[in-house]
C-alpha cells in the first residue's frame, strides 16, 4: 500500500471518530466563529487541515461571501468537502501539506478545526458530555476567577493571575479580554482597572447617562465600554466616523508606529493623525456629535488595541486546557510535565502535587520519559529515567527498550546482566546515577517511602 493510500485510510478512520463528536462541537465552533469580526463582508480565509470542511461551513453561515481555501493532505476527505460546497465558486481546494505549500494569496485570517484524539468509549462519553457546553461550564470559569491557572497557556504568570482576579473572570468573554489586556500598553494605561470597574457597574445595574459613554458601550458592550480590540476600533471608525475600511486599517497601522522615529518621520505621522482625526470628526458630525466630543472619542481609540481574532484563539486554547485540568487532572499534568522545558519541570512538578497528583520517582521498570502509571488502582505520574542527572536520553531509551522486549527487571543483578549489550552507553557513570536516584531500588517499601518523602517536599514548595 502506498504512503498516500495509507494516509487516506488513516484519515478515514480518524474522520469517522471525528464525525461522532462533531454534533457536540456545534455550539463551540459557532461561538468561536461568532467571536471573530472580519474586515468587510468577503474575507479571504485559509482553512488549515480542513478535513471535510466543517469549520468553513460554520464560517459561511456568518460570511456567505467569504473566499475560502481549504487545504488538507487527505484527498478523500477533500472530495467530501467539494461535495459539501458544490456550486460555490468562492471555495477552492488544495490537496497538499500546508506546512510546505507556497500560497500566492494574502489571507485575512487563518482558521483550523480542533483536533479530537482517539479515546476509549467511556472517555469519549465523558468528553461529549463536557465539551458540549464547554464555553458555559461554570467550573472552568470558577477556576479562572480564582486564578488557579498553573500550567495554563497565557495565564501562568503572576500578572496574568492578578488580571483574572481583578476583573472577577466568570465567563469565556472575560478570558478573551484578560488575554488581550495582559500587555504592557493596557497595564500602563489602567485599562484593566477600567474594565473591572465598568463590569461591576453593569453587573450592579449602574447605568451611565453620559452620551459619550453610551457610544463606548454601543461599540464595546462585550468589554463593558473599554476598547480592547482592534475590531471594535475599526467598527467605530467605519460606522460612527464614516471612514472606509482602508482608512480604519490606517488607524490600526498608525497605532503600531511611532517609536524610534526621526523628526521628519514624526512630522509626517502627526500630519497623518490630524488627517485621520478630521475625517472621523467630519463623519461623526453627521451623526449629531459635536467636534470636541468626536475628538475625545477618536483620541480614546488611539490609546491601544489588540487583535480579537488572536485573543480568541489564545483563549480557546486556555479554556480547553482548563477543561482537561479540571476533569482529567493527572493526564493534564502528565502532558504538561512531559513537554515542559527542563528548567520548568521542578516548579511544575510542585504545582502538580499541590493540585492533587502523585508523582513517582524514576525507575528502570518505568520509561525514558514521564509516563502515566497505575499503582493499586490509582493513576500516578512516573518521572522518566532521562530526567536523572548523568543518565541521558540514549541510555534511558536503551533501558526502556530492553524492558519492553524481555520483561521487567527483577533485581539489580538481572538489570546489570541484561545491560551488557548496551555497556558503552549504560556505563559505570550511568549505573551510579541510577543507584543514587533510587531507580534501581527493587524493594517496594523502600521505593514508595522515598516517593512519599519526595511528594511531601514537592507539596511544600508548591
Label the structural class: alpha/beta
Provide the spatial order of strands within the biggest beta sheet.
Answer: 3-2-1-4
What's the average pLDDT? Answer: 82
N-to-C order of helices and strands: HHEHEHEEHHHHHHHHHHHHHHEEEHHHH
Main beta-sheet annotation: 4 strands, parallel
Query: What is the global morphology?
Result: elongated
Poorly predicted runs are: 17-28, 114-132
Number of strands: 7
Regarding quaternary structure, how should these chains be classified?
single chain
Helix content: 55-70%
Termini separation comes to: 52 Å
Strand percent estimate:
5-15%
Tally of alpha and pi helices: 22
What is Rg?
A: 28 Å
Task: Please give a structural write-up.
There is one protein chain. The chain is of the alpha/beta class and 462 residues long. It is built from 22 helices and seven strands. It has helices at 3-21, 26-34, 54-62, 75-84, 121-131, 138-145, 158-166, 172-181, 184-189, 191-203, 211-219, 230-239, 245-256, 263-285, 291-301, 308-327, 329-338, 345-354, 393-406, 412-418, 428-437, 444-461, and strands spanning 44-48, 67-72, 91-95, 109-112, 359-360, 371-375, 378-382. The strands form two sheets. It has a four-stranded parallel beta sheet, with helices on one face. Strands 5-7-6 form a three-stranded mixed beta sheet, sandwiched between helices. Helix 17 packs antiparallel against helix 18 (345-354). The radius of gyration is 28 Å and the shape is elongated. It starts with a helix and ends with a helix.
